[in-house]
UniProtKB/TrEMBL annotation:
Cellular component GO terms, alphabetical: ATP-binding cassette (ABC) transporter complex
Taxonomic placement: Bacteria, Bacillati, Bacillota, Bacilli, Lactobacillales
TM ranges: 43-65, 72-88, 94-120, 141-168, 252-272, 296-315
Record-stated family: Belongs to the binding-protein-dependent transport system permease family. In the N-terminal section; belongs to the binding-protein-dependent transport system permease family.
Organism: Tetragenococcus muriaticus 3MR10-3
Record's keyword annotation contains Transport: yes
Main subcellular location of this protein, as a coarse class: membrane
Alphabetical GO biological process terms: choline transport; glycine betaine transport
Annotated region described as Disordered, given as residue ranges: 552-575
Protein name (Swiss-Prot/TrEMBL): Substrate-binding/permease component of an ABC superfamily glycine/betaine transporter
Sequence ranges of Basic and acidic residues compositional bias: 558-575
InterPro entries assigned: ABC_Gly_betaine_transp_sub-bd, MetI-like, MetI-like_sf
Annotated membrane topology: Multi-pass membrane protein
Length: 575
Protein backbone atom coordinates (compact mmCIF):
# COMPACT_ATOMS: atom_id res chain seq x y z
CA UNK A 1 0.00 0.00 0.00
CA UNK A 2 2.83 2.38 0.90
CA UNK A 3 4.56 1.69 -2.41
CA UNK A 4 1.33 2.49 -4.25
CA UNK A 5 0.86 5.78 -2.41
CA UNK A 6 4.44 6.78 -3.12
CA UNK A 7 3.93 6.42 -6.87
CA UNK A 8 3.69 9.98 -8.13
CA UNK A 9 0.47 10.67 -10.01
CA UNK A 10 1.43 12.40 -13.29
CA UNK A 11 -0.81 15.43 -12.76
CA UNK A 12 1.72 17.92 -14.13
CA UNK A 13 2.31 15.79 -17.22
CA UNK A 14 -1.43 15.58 -17.89
CA UNK A 15 -1.85 19.36 -17.59
CA UNK A 16 1.15 19.92 -19.88
CA UNK A 17 -0.33 17.51 -22.42
CA UNK A 18 -3.68 19.32 -22.37
CA UNK A 19 -2.06 22.73 -22.83
CA UNK A 20 0.17 21.40 -25.61
CA UNK A 21 -2.86 19.92 -27.40
CA UNK A 22 -4.78 23.19 -27.09
CA UNK A 23 -1.89 25.31 -28.35
CA UNK A 24 -1.30 22.95 -31.26
CA UNK A 25 -4.85 22.39 -32.51
CA UNK A 26 -6.45 25.69 -31.48
CA UNK A 27 -3.52 27.91 -32.38
CA UNK A 28 -5.51 29.67 -35.09
CA UNK A 29 -8.38 30.41 -32.74
CA UNK A 30 -6.08 31.78 -30.03
CA UNK A 31 -4.21 33.85 -32.59
CA UNK A 32 -7.48 35.35 -33.83
CA UNK A 33 -8.48 36.24 -30.27
CA UNK A 34 -5.06 37.77 -29.68
CA UNK A 35 -5.22 39.92 -32.83
CA UNK A 36 -8.77 41.11 -32.16
CA UNK A 37 -8.09 41.70 -28.47
CA UNK A 38 -4.83 43.53 -29.10
CA UNK A 39 -6.49 45.73 -31.73
CA UNK A 40 -9.39 46.63 -29.45
CA UNK A 41 -7.20 47.30 -26.42
CA UNK A 42 -4.72 49.38 -28.39
CA UNK A 43 -7.61 51.42 -29.76
CA UNK A 44 -8.92 52.03 -26.23
CA UNK A 45 -5.51 52.92 -24.80
CA UNK A 46 -4.70 55.18 -27.77
CA UNK A 47 -8.06 56.88 -27.39
CA UNK A 48 -7.51 57.49 -23.69
CA UNK A 49 -3.97 58.69 -24.30
CA UNK A 50 -5.19 61.04 -27.06
CA UNK A 51 -7.26 63.05 -24.60
CA UNK A 52 -5.14 65.81 -23.06
CA UNK A 53 -4.51 64.80 -19.42
CA UNK A 54 -5.77 68.09 -18.00
CA UNK A 55 -8.99 67.82 -20.02
CA UNK A 56 -9.57 64.22 -18.90
CA UNK A 57 -8.99 65.16 -15.26
CA UNK A 58 -11.52 68.00 -15.54
CA UNK A 59 -14.07 65.72 -17.25
CA UNK A 60 -13.73 63.10 -14.52
CA UNK A 61 -14.12 65.80 -11.87
CA UNK A 62 -17.35 67.00 -13.47
CA UNK A 63 -18.70 63.45 -13.77
CA UNK A 64 -17.78 62.76 -10.15
CA UNK A 65 -19.42 65.98 -8.97
CA UNK A 66 -22.80 65.01 -10.44
CA UNK A 67 -22.42 61.28 -9.76
CA UNK A 68 -21.80 61.82 -6.05
CA UNK A 69 -24.70 64.22 -5.45
CA UNK A 70 -22.69 67.41 -6.01
CA UNK A 71 -20.31 66.70 -3.17
CA UNK A 72 -16.78 68.06 -3.43
CA UNK A 73 -14.73 65.27 -1.79
CA UNK A 74 -14.41 62.90 -4.76
CA UNK A 75 -13.68 65.61 -7.38
CA UNK A 76 -10.91 66.98 -5.16
CA UNK A 77 -9.47 63.48 -4.68
CA UNK A 78 -9.49 62.95 -8.46
CA UNK A 79 -7.75 66.28 -9.00
CA UNK A 80 -5.00 65.60 -6.46
CA UNK A 81 -4.53 61.92 -7.32
CA UNK A 82 -4.43 62.25 -11.11
CA UNK A 83 -2.35 65.44 -10.96
CA UNK A 84 0.23 63.48 -8.95
CA UNK A 85 0.21 60.69 -11.56
CA UNK A 86 0.67 63.20 -14.37
CA UNK A 87 3.44 65.04 -12.48
CA UNK A 88 5.37 61.79 -11.99
CA UNK A 89 5.28 60.95 -15.73
CA UNK A 90 3.06 57.90 -15.18
CA UNK A 91 0.11 59.04 -17.29
CA UNK A 92 0.67 56.66 -20.19
CA UNK A 93 1.14 53.77 -17.75
CA UNK A 94 -2.12 54.74 -16.06
CA UNK A 95 -3.97 54.67 -19.39
CA UNK A 96 -2.67 51.16 -20.17
CA UNK A 97 -3.70 49.95 -16.72
CA UNK A 98 -7.11 51.59 -17.04
CA UNK A 99 -7.58 49.82 -20.39
CA UNK A 100 -6.71 46.48 -18.80
CA UNK A 101 -9.16 47.07 -15.95
CA UNK A 102 -12.01 48.20 -18.23
CA UNK A 103 -11.70 45.33 -20.72
CA UNK A 104 -11.03 42.61 -18.13
CA UNK A 105 -13.88 43.75 -15.89
CA UNK A 106 -16.31 43.96 -18.82
CA UNK A 107 -15.47 40.42 -19.96
CA UNK A 108 -15.63 39.02 -16.42
CA UNK A 109 -19.03 40.65 -15.81
CA UNK A 110 -20.41 39.60 -19.21
CA UNK A 111 -19.42 36.00 -18.51
CA UNK A 112 -19.97 35.96 -14.74
CA UNK A 113 -23.54 37.23 -14.52
CA UNK A 114 -25.03 34.57 -16.87
CA UNK A 115 -23.09 31.82 -15.06
CA UNK A 116 -24.39 33.15 -11.74
CA UNK A 117 -27.94 33.07 -13.10
CA UNK A 118 -27.43 29.48 -14.26
CA UNK A 119 -26.21 28.49 -10.78
CA UNK A 120 -29.20 30.16 -9.16
CA UNK A 121 -31.62 28.30 -11.44
CA UNK A 122 -30.00 24.87 -11.19
CA UNK A 123 -28.75 23.07 -8.10
CA UNK A 124 -26.87 20.63 -10.33
CA UNK A 125 -25.09 23.47 -12.09
CA UNK A 126 -24.21 24.99 -8.73
CA UNK A 127 -22.79 21.68 -7.53
CA UNK A 128 -20.51 21.50 -10.61
CA UNK A 129 -19.51 25.17 -10.85
CA UNK A 130 -18.90 25.95 -7.18
CA UNK A 131 -15.74 23.82 -6.77
CA UNK A 132 -14.40 25.26 -10.03
CA UNK A 133 -14.84 28.73 -8.58
CA UNK A 134 -13.05 27.60 -5.41
CA UNK A 135 -10.05 26.55 -7.49
CA UNK A 136 -10.09 29.75 -9.56
CA UNK A 137 -10.26 31.95 -6.48
CA UNK A 138 -7.59 30.20 -4.40
CA UNK A 139 -5.07 29.25 -7.10
CA UNK A 140 -1.98 31.51 -6.88
CA UNK A 141 -2.40 34.23 -9.47
CA UNK A 142 1.07 33.59 -10.92
CA UNK A 143 -0.10 30.17 -12.13
CA UNK A 144 -2.47 31.81 -14.61
CA UNK A 145 0.47 33.39 -16.41
CA UNK A 146 1.68 30.03 -17.73
CA UNK A 147 -1.34 29.13 -19.93
CA UNK A 148 -1.84 32.82 -20.74
CA UNK A 149 1.59 32.99 -22.39
CA UNK A 150 1.16 29.58 -24.00
CA UNK A 151 -2.16 30.59 -25.61
CA UNK A 152 -1.62 34.27 -26.40
CA UNK A 153 2.09 35.07 -26.11
CA UNK A 154 2.95 38.37 -24.42
CA UNK A 155 1.22 41.72 -24.11
CA UNK A 156 -2.16 42.97 -22.93
CA UNK A 157 -4.23 40.04 -24.19
CA UNK A 158 -2.62 37.37 -21.96
CA UNK A 159 -2.78 39.86 -19.08
CA UNK A 160 -6.49 40.23 -19.71
CA UNK A 161 -6.95 36.44 -19.89
CA UNK A 162 -5.21 35.93 -16.53
CA UNK A 163 -7.13 38.81 -14.95
CA UNK A 164 -10.51 37.52 -16.11
CA UNK A 165 -9.89 34.01 -14.77
CA UNK A 166 -8.69 35.38 -11.44
CA UNK A 167 -11.44 38.02 -11.03
CA UNK A 168 -14.48 36.11 -12.34
CA UNK A 169 -15.63 34.28 -9.15
CA UNK A 170 -17.04 37.24 -7.11
CA UNK A 171 -19.49 38.22 -9.85
CA UNK A 172 -20.63 34.62 -10.30
CA UNK A 173 -21.00 33.91 -6.58
CA UNK A 174 -22.83 37.10 -5.65
CA UNK A 175 -25.16 36.94 -8.66
CA UNK A 176 -26.11 33.41 -7.60
CA UNK A 177 -26.51 34.48 -3.98
CA UNK A 178 -28.60 37.54 -4.81
CA UNK A 179 -31.09 35.64 -6.97
CA UNK A 180 -31.41 32.81 -4.47
CA UNK A 181 -32.19 35.32 -1.70
CA UNK A 182 -35.15 36.83 -3.56
CA UNK A 183 -38.31 36.22 -1.53
CA UNK A 184 -40.06 33.04 -2.66
CA UNK A 185 -43.47 34.70 -2.31
CA UNK A 186 -42.52 37.30 -4.92
CA UNK A 187 -41.47 34.57 -7.35
CA UNK A 188 -44.75 32.73 -6.75
CA UNK A 189 -46.68 35.95 -7.29
CA UNK A 190 -45.00 36.38 -10.66
CA UNK A 191 -45.90 32.81 -11.61
CA UNK A 192 -49.52 33.22 -10.48
CA UNK A 193 -49.90 36.32 -12.66
CA UNK A 194 -48.81 34.35 -15.71
CA UNK A 195 -45.28 35.72 -16.00
CA UNK A 196 -42.84 33.71 -18.05
CA UNK A 197 -39.50 32.53 -16.66
CA UNK A 198 -37.77 35.31 -18.58
CA UNK A 199 -40.15 37.97 -17.28
CA UNK A 200 -39.71 36.70 -13.73
CA UNK A 201 -35.93 36.89 -14.10
CA UNK A 202 -35.81 40.34 -15.71
CA UNK A 203 -38.61 42.08 -13.82
CA UNK A 204 -38.39 40.43 -10.38
CA UNK A 205 -35.23 38.52 -9.60
CA UNK A 206 -32.52 40.66 -11.21
CA UNK A 207 -33.87 44.00 -9.91
CA UNK A 208 -34.15 42.60 -6.37
CA UNK A 209 -30.70 40.97 -6.60
CA UNK A 210 -29.16 44.17 -7.95
CA UNK A 211 -27.34 45.03 -4.71
CA UNK A 212 -25.56 41.69 -4.58
CA UNK A 213 -24.75 41.73 -8.28
CA UNK A 214 -23.15 45.16 -8.12
CA UNK A 215 -21.22 44.14 -5.02
CA UNK A 216 -19.80 41.28 -7.09
CA UNK A 217 -18.99 43.66 -9.94
CA UNK A 218 -17.16 45.93 -7.50
CA UNK A 219 -15.12 43.04 -6.12
CA UNK A 220 -14.31 41.79 -9.61
CA UNK A 221 -12.98 45.22 -10.57
CA UNK A 222 -10.79 45.34 -7.46
CA UNK A 223 -9.44 41.84 -8.13
CA UNK A 224 -8.55 42.83 -11.70
CA UNK A 225 -6.52 45.70 -10.26
CA UNK A 226 -4.73 43.28 -7.95
CA UNK A 227 -3.49 41.44 -11.06
CA UNK A 228 -1.80 44.55 -12.46
CA UNK A 229 1.66 43.77 -11.08
CA UNK A 230 1.40 40.03 -11.78
CA UNK A 231 0.36 40.61 -15.39
CA UNK A 232 3.34 42.90 -15.92
CA UNK A 233 5.58 39.82 -15.72
CA UNK A 234 4.30 38.71 -19.13
CA UNK A 235 4.69 42.05 -20.86
CA UNK A 236 1.39 43.72 -19.97
CA UNK A 237 2.18 47.45 -19.99
CA UNK A 238 1.03 49.82 -17.30
CA UNK A 239 1.67 50.76 -13.70
CA UNK A 240 2.48 47.16 -12.82
CA UNK A 241 5.73 47.28 -14.79
CA UNK A 242 6.86 50.25 -12.72
CA UNK A 243 6.09 48.42 -9.49
CA UNK A 244 7.84 45.26 -10.70
CA UNK A 245 10.91 47.20 -11.81
CA UNK A 246 11.10 48.97 -8.45
CA UNK A 247 10.86 45.67 -6.56
CA UNK A 248 13.52 43.98 -8.67
CA UNK A 249 15.88 46.96 -8.37
CA UNK A 250 15.02 47.59 -4.70
CA UNK A 251 13.96 51.19 -5.41
CA UNK A 252 11.76 51.99 -2.45
CA UNK A 253 10.79 55.50 -3.53
CA UNK A 254 9.88 54.53 -7.08
CA UNK A 255 7.88 51.53 -5.87
CA UNK A 256 5.96 53.73 -3.44
CA UNK A 257 5.09 56.27 -6.14
CA UNK A 258 3.82 53.60 -8.55
CA UNK A 259 1.97 51.93 -5.68
CA UNK A 260 0.22 55.19 -4.83
CA UNK A 261 -0.84 55.52 -8.48
CA UNK A 262 -2.42 52.05 -8.30
CA UNK A 263 -4.19 53.06 -5.08
CA UNK A 264 -5.55 56.24 -6.71
CA UNK A 265 -6.98 54.23 -9.60
CA UNK A 266 -8.35 51.57 -7.25
CA UNK A 267 -10.22 54.12 -5.11
CA UNK A 268 -11.67 55.81 -8.18
CA UNK A 269 -12.83 52.52 -9.69
CA UNK A 270 -14.24 51.37 -6.35
CA UNK A 271 -16.27 54.53 -5.81
CA UNK A 272 -17.58 54.71 -9.37
CA UNK A 273 -18.61 51.03 -9.47
CA UNK A 274 -20.39 51.46 -6.15
CA UNK A 275 -22.22 54.48 -7.54
CA UNK A 276 -23.70 52.27 -10.29
CA UNK A 277 -26.02 50.92 -7.63
CA UNK A 278 -27.10 54.39 -6.57
CA UNK A 279 -30.73 53.37 -6.05
CA UNK A 280 -29.84 50.94 -3.27
CA UNK A 281 -31.90 51.50 -0.16
CA UNK A 282 -34.76 53.16 -2.05
CA UNK A 283 -38.23 51.71 -2.48
CA UNK A 284 -39.57 50.99 -5.94
CA UNK A 285 -41.87 54.05 -5.72
CA UNK A 286 -38.93 56.33 -4.93
CA UNK A 287 -37.04 55.30 -8.07
CA UNK A 288 -37.92 57.52 -10.99
CA UNK A 289 -37.56 55.69 -14.30
CA UNK A 290 -35.71 57.47 -17.10
CA UNK A 291 -37.95 58.59 -19.94
CA UNK A 292 -37.55 57.01 -23.37
CA UNK A 293 -36.61 60.35 -24.91
CA UNK A 294 -33.91 60.93 -22.31
CA UNK A 295 -32.53 57.45 -22.86
CA UNK A 296 -32.27 58.09 -26.62
CA UNK A 297 -30.53 61.43 -26.10
CA UNK A 298 -28.11 60.00 -23.54
CA UNK A 299 -27.35 56.95 -25.70
CA UNK A 300 -26.80 59.09 -28.80
CA UNK A 301 -24.51 61.49 -26.95
CA UNK A 302 -22.50 58.59 -25.55
CA UNK A 303 -22.18 56.94 -28.96
CA UNK A 304 -21.09 60.24 -30.54
CA UNK A 305 -18.48 60.80 -27.82
CA UNK A 306 -17.10 57.29 -28.31
CA UNK A 307 -16.83 57.77 -32.10
CA UNK A 308 -15.08 61.13 -31.70
CA UNK A 309 -12.61 59.73 -29.18
CA UNK A 310 -11.86 56.69 -31.35
CA UNK A 311 -11.16 58.97 -34.33
CA UNK A 312 -8.88 61.11 -32.16
CA UNK A 313 -7.16 57.98 -30.88
CA UNK A 314 -6.59 56.69 -34.40
CA UNK A 315 -5.21 60.04 -35.55
CA UNK A 316 -2.91 60.20 -32.53
CA UNK A 317 -1.12 56.95 -33.28
CA UNK A 318 2.48 57.76 -33.95
CA UNK A 319 3.88 57.05 -37.36
CA UNK A 320 7.54 56.68 -38.25
CA UNK A 321 9.48 56.49 -41.49
CA UNK A 322 11.14 53.19 -40.70
CA UNK A 323 8.53 51.25 -38.71
CA UNK A 324 8.22 49.85 -35.22
CA UNK A 325 10.53 47.48 -33.38
CA UNK A 326 10.03 45.72 -30.05
CA UNK A 327 12.93 44.94 -27.73
CA UNK A 328 12.31 42.39 -24.99
CA UNK A 329 14.33 42.43 -21.79
CA UNK A 330 14.32 41.25 -18.20
CA UNK A 331 14.24 43.72 -15.31
CA UNK A 332 17.91 43.11 -14.50
CA UNK A 333 20.37 45.97 -14.27
CA UNK A 334 22.59 44.92 -17.17
CA UNK A 335 19.63 44.32 -19.50
CA UNK A 336 17.94 47.59 -18.52
CA UNK A 337 21.11 49.52 -19.36
CA UNK A 338 21.85 47.71 -22.62
CA UNK A 339 18.28 47.76 -23.93
CA UNK A 340 17.75 51.46 -23.18
CA UNK A 341 20.93 52.45 -25.01
CA UNK A 342 20.05 50.30 -28.02
CA UNK A 343 16.48 51.64 -28.02
CA UNK A 344 17.62 55.26 -28.08
CA UNK A 345 20.07 54.63 -30.91
CA UNK A 346 17.32 52.99 -32.94
CA UNK A 347 14.90 55.84 -32.21
CA UNK A 348 17.48 58.37 -33.41
CA UNK A 349 17.53 56.43 -36.69
CA UNK A 350 13.76 56.86 -37.08
CA UNK A 351 12.34 53.70 -35.53
CA UNK A 352 9.46 53.60 -33.09
CA UNK A 353 10.87 51.39 -30.32
CA UNK A 354 8.81 49.58 -27.69
CA UNK A 355 10.59 48.04 -24.71
CA UNK A 356 8.79 45.10 -23.10
CA UNK A 357 9.91 43.79 -19.70
CA UNK A 358 9.50 40.03 -19.24
CA UNK A 359 10.87 37.11 -17.28
CA UNK A 360 13.92 35.49 -18.89
CA UNK A 361 12.16 32.35 -20.26
CA UNK A 362 9.31 34.46 -21.64
CA UNK A 363 11.83 36.82 -23.24
CA UNK A 364 13.33 33.96 -25.24
CA UNK A 365 9.87 32.73 -26.25
CA UNK A 366 8.72 36.19 -27.29
CA UNK A 367 11.65 36.64 -29.69
CA UNK A 368 11.41 33.07 -30.97
CA UNK A 369 7.74 33.37 -31.88
CA UNK A 370 8.12 36.85 -33.36
CA UNK A 371 6.19 38.84 -30.76
CA UNK A 372 9.39 40.70 -29.98
CA UNK A 373 12.04 41.60 -32.55
CA UNK A 374 15.16 41.19 -30.44
CA UNK A 375 16.71 40.86 -27.00
CA UNK A 376 20.16 42.01 -25.90
CA UNK A 377 20.57 40.08 -22.66
CA UNK A 378 21.25 36.40 -23.37
CA UNK A 379 24.11 35.12 -21.19
CA UNK A 380 25.86 32.33 -23.08
CA UNK A 381 27.15 29.68 -23.03
CA UNK A 382 26.19 28.84 -19.42
CA UNK A 383 23.62 30.99 -17.61
CA UNK A 384 20.86 30.81 -20.22
CA UNK A 385 22.03 27.54 -21.70
CA UNK A 386 18.72 25.75 -21.11
CA UNK A 387 16.64 28.53 -22.71
CA UNK A 388 18.93 28.71 -25.74
CA UNK A 389 19.02 24.95 -26.14
CA UNK A 390 15.23 24.87 -26.28
CA UNK A 391 14.67 27.79 -28.66
CA UNK A 392 18.04 28.53 -30.28
CA UNK A 393 17.08 27.04 -33.63
CA UNK A 394 14.23 29.57 -33.84
CA UNK A 395 16.48 32.56 -33.10
CA UNK A 396 19.03 34.56 -35.08
CA UNK A 397 22.25 34.89 -33.05
CA UNK A 398 23.83 38.29 -33.81
CA UNK A 399 26.87 37.72 -31.61
CA UNK A 400 28.10 39.30 -28.40
CA UNK A 401 27.52 42.86 -27.26
CA UNK A 402 29.89 42.11 -24.37
CA UNK A 403 32.38 39.44 -25.45
CA UNK A 404 33.65 37.02 -22.78
CA UNK A 405 33.68 39.71 -20.10
CA UNK A 406 30.67 38.58 -18.11
CA UNK A 407 30.75 36.13 -15.25
CA UNK A 408 28.76 34.69 -12.36
CA UNK A 409 30.31 34.11 -8.97
CA UNK A 410 30.01 34.17 -5.22
CA UNK A 411 31.00 37.64 -4.03
CA UNK A 412 31.95 39.03 -0.61
CA UNK A 413 33.02 42.43 0.74
CA UNK A 414 36.79 42.88 0.51
CA UNK A 415 37.09 43.16 4.29
CA UNK A 416 36.18 39.47 4.66
CA UNK A 417 39.27 37.29 5.04
CA UNK A 418 38.40 34.75 2.36
CA UNK A 419 39.63 34.63 -1.23
CA UNK A 420 38.29 31.31 -2.50
CA UNK A 421 35.07 29.34 -2.25
CA UNK A 422 37.18 26.59 -0.72
CA UNK A 423 38.04 28.96 2.16
CA UNK A 424 34.42 29.29 3.30
CA UNK A 425 33.57 27.62 6.62
CA UNK A 426 30.92 29.25 8.81
CA UNK A 427 30.84 32.82 7.45
CA UNK A 428 27.55 34.70 7.06
CA UNK A 429 25.66 32.05 9.06
CA UNK A 430 26.53 29.60 6.28
CA UNK A 431 24.07 31.32 3.95
CA UNK A 432 24.44 32.50 0.37
CA UNK A 433 21.99 35.25 -0.57
CA UNK A 434 20.75 34.60 -4.09
CA UNK A 435 18.33 36.07 -6.59
CA UNK A 436 15.14 34.79 -8.26
CA UNK A 437 14.49 31.02 -7.97
CA UNK A 438 14.29 30.52 -11.75
CA UNK A 439 17.41 32.53 -12.65
CA UNK A 440 20.41 30.87 -14.27
CA UNK A 441 22.61 32.51 -11.63
CA UNK A 442 20.59 30.72 -8.93
CA UNK A 443 20.99 27.35 -10.65
CA UNK A 444 24.74 27.93 -10.82
CA UNK A 445 24.88 28.88 -7.15
CA UNK A 446 22.99 25.72 -6.18
CA UNK A 447 25.37 23.62 -8.28
CA UNK A 448 28.31 25.31 -6.54
CA UNK A 449 27.00 24.41 -3.08
CA UNK A 450 26.81 20.79 -4.22
CA UNK A 451 30.27 20.83 -5.83
CA UNK A 452 32.25 21.94 -2.76
CA UNK A 453 32.43 19.58 0.27
CA UNK A 454 33.04 22.52 2.63
CA UNK A 455 29.61 23.91 1.66
CA UNK A 456 27.62 20.80 2.63
CA UNK A 457 25.85 22.62 5.45
CA UNK A 458 25.41 25.87 3.58
CA UNK A 459 22.03 27.13 2.38
CA UNK A 460 21.09 29.21 -0.67
CA UNK A 461 18.39 31.78 0.15
CA UNK A 462 16.59 32.90 -3.00
CA UNK A 463 15.07 36.37 -3.16
CA UNK A 464 15.37 38.89 -6.01
CA UNK A 465 18.13 40.93 -7.57
CA UNK A 466 16.99 43.98 -5.64
CA UNK A 467 16.78 42.11 -2.35
CA UNK A 468 20.26 40.66 -2.89
CA UNK A 469 21.82 44.09 -3.44
CA UNK A 470 19.92 45.53 -0.48
CA UNK A 471 21.21 42.73 1.77
CA UNK A 472 24.75 43.35 0.51
CA UNK A 473 24.49 47.10 1.11
CA UNK A 474 23.07 46.61 4.60
CA UNK A 475 25.82 44.17 5.55
CA UNK A 476 28.59 46.45 4.22
CA UNK A 477 27.19 49.46 6.09
CA UNK A 478 27.50 47.47 9.34
CA UNK A 479 30.68 45.60 8.31
CA UNK A 480 28.95 42.26 8.69
CA UNK A 481 29.78 39.07 6.87
CA UNK A 482 27.74 38.37 3.75
CA UNK A 483 28.06 36.06 0.76
CA UNK A 484 25.98 36.83 -2.32
CA UNK A 485 25.43 35.12 -5.65
CA UNK A 486 26.37 37.94 -8.00
CA UNK A 487 27.45 38.60 -11.57
CA UNK A 488 29.50 41.07 -13.54
CA UNK A 489 28.86 43.50 -15.11
CA UNK A 490 26.95 44.93 -12.14
CA UNK A 491 26.93 48.32 -10.47
CA UNK A 492 27.83 46.82 -7.07
CA UNK A 493 31.46 46.49 -8.27
CA UNK A 494 31.54 50.22 -9.07
CA UNK A 495 29.88 51.35 -5.85
CA UNK A 496 31.24 48.91 -3.24
CA UNK A 497 34.58 47.30 -2.53
CA UNK A 498 33.43 43.80 -3.44
CA UNK A 499 35.37 40.83 -4.79
CA UNK A 500 34.55 37.53 -6.46
CA UNK A 501 35.76 34.43 -4.66
CA UNK A 502 38.01 32.15 -6.66
CA UNK A 503 36.09 29.16 -8.05
CA UNK A 504 38.61 26.35 -8.69
CA UNK A 505 35.86 23.79 -9.42
CA UNK A 506 34.11 26.11 -11.87
CA UNK A 507 30.74 25.71 -10.16
CA UNK A 508 29.58 29.20 -11.19
CA UNK A 509 30.80 28.74 -14.76
CA UNK A 510 33.55 30.49 -16.66
CA UNK A 511 33.69 33.69 -18.67
CA UNK A 512 30.48 34.40 -20.58
CA UNK A 513 29.28 36.67 -23.32
CA UNK A 514 26.13 38.79 -23.36
CA UNK A 515 24.60 37.98 -26.73
CA UNK A 516 22.02 39.73 -28.92
CA UNK A 517 19.30 37.47 -30.31
CA UNK A 518 16.79 38.49 -33.00
CA UNK A 519 13.72 36.92 -34.48
CA UNK A 520 14.19 35.14 -37.76
CA UNK A 521 13.25 37.44 -40.62
CA UNK A 522 14.25 40.71 -38.94
CA UNK A 523 17.23 41.08 -41.29
CA UNK A 524 14.90 41.11 -44.31
CA UNK A 525 12.16 43.21 -42.67
CA UNK A 526 14.37 45.91 -41.11
CA UNK A 527 17.91 45.64 -42.48
CA UNK A 528 19.12 48.92 -40.95
CA UNK A 529 17.82 48.07 -37.47
CA UNK A 530 19.30 44.60 -37.83
CA UNK A 531 22.68 46.11 -38.70
CA UNK A 532 22.64 48.38 -35.63
CA UNK A 533 21.81 45.46 -33.35
CA UNK A 534 24.42 43.30 -35.08
CA UNK A 535 27.13 45.95 -34.60
CA UNK A 536 26.12 46.81 -31.03
CA UNK A 537 29.13 46.13 -28.80
CA UNK A 538 30.64 47.84 -25.75
CA UNK A 539 32.74 47.15 -22.66
CA UNK A 540 32.21 46.45 -18.97
CA UNK A 541 33.07 50.04 -18.01
CA UNK A 542 30.43 51.34 -20.43
CA UNK A 543 27.59 49.19 -19.21
CA UNK A 544 28.47 49.60 -15.51
CA UNK A 545 28.53 53.39 -15.85
CA UNK A 546 24.95 53.35 -17.13
CA UNK A 547 23.89 50.79 -14.51
CA UNK A 548 25.37 52.86 -11.67
CA UNK A 549 23.67 56.05 -12.85
CA UNK A 550 20.33 54.23 -12.97
CA UNK A 551 20.88 52.77 -9.51
CA UNK A 552 21.58 56.26 -8.16
CA UNK A 553 18.13 57.39 -9.26
CA UNK A 554 18.49 58.58 -12.84
CA UNK A 555 15.76 57.48 -15.21
CA UNK A 556 17.11 54.66 -17.45
CA UNK A 557 16.29 56.60 -20.62
CA UNK A 558 18.13 59.64 -19.36
CA UNK A 559 21.12 57.59 -18.22
CA UNK A 560 21.27 55.96 -21.66
CA UNK A 561 21.07 59.38 -23.31
CA UNK A 562 23.97 60.64 -21.19
CA UNK A 563 26.15 57.72 -22.24
CA UNK A 564 25.27 58.18 -25.93
CA UNK A 565 26.13 61.89 -25.74
CA UNK A 566 29.48 61.11 -24.12
CA UNK A 567 30.40 58.32 -26.59
CA UNK A 568 29.45 59.54 -30.10
CA UNK A 569 32.36 57.78 -31.81
CA UNK A 570 31.42 54.38 -30.42
CA UNK A 571 27.76 54.90 -31.34
CA UNK A 572 28.69 55.89 -34.89
CA UNK A 573 30.42 52.51 -35.31
CA UNK A 574 27.08 50.74 -34.82
CA UNK A 575 25.25 52.52 -37.65
Amino acid sequence: MDDFLQQKVPIAQVIDAIVDWLTEYLAGFFNLLRIVGQTVMEAISNTLAAIPPILLILLLMVVAYFTFNKKWQMPVFILIGLAMVYNQNMWDDLMYTLTLVIVSSFIAIAVGVPIGILMAKSDKAQMVIKPILDVMQTMPSFVYLIPAVAFFGIGMVPGTFASVIFALPPTVRLTNLGIRQVDTELKEASDSLGGTAWQKLVKVELPLAKGNIFAGINQTTMMVLSMVVVASMIGTPGLGQGVLAAVQRSQIGSGFVYGVAVVVLAIMMDRFTQSLNKNRGKTQNEIKPMSKKRKIILGGATALAVVVLVVIGGMSQSTTNKGSITLAYAEQDDQVATTNVAAQVLEEEGYNVTMTALDIPVTFEAVANGQADAMLGAWLPTTHKANYAQLGDQLDNLGASLDKQAQNGLAVPSYMDVDSIEDLTDEADQTVTGVEPGAGNTAAAQATLEAYPNLDNWELTTSSAGAMTTQLERAISQEEEVVVSAWSPHWIFSRFDVKFLEDPKGGMGGAESIVTLARQGLKDDMPEAYQILDNFEWGVEDIESVMLEVEEGTDPEEAARHWIEENPEKVSEWN
